[in-house]
Amino acid sequence: MKFFEGCMALITGASSGLGEEFAHQLAPVAKTLVLVARRNDRLVALRERLLAEYPACSVFTYRADLSQEKEREELVNWLQKQQLPINFLVNNAGLGDSGEFSTAEWPRIRSMLDVNITALTHLTYLLLPSMLRTQGAAVLNVSSVAGFFPLPNMSVYSATKSYVTSFSEALAMELRPKGIIVTALCPGPIPTEFAETAARPYEEPRIPHTHSMPAFMATPRQVVLAGLQAVVAERPRAIPNPFLALAIGVALVIPFFLTRKVISCFRTSL
Question: Is 125 a catalytic site residue?
Answer without folding.
Answer: no
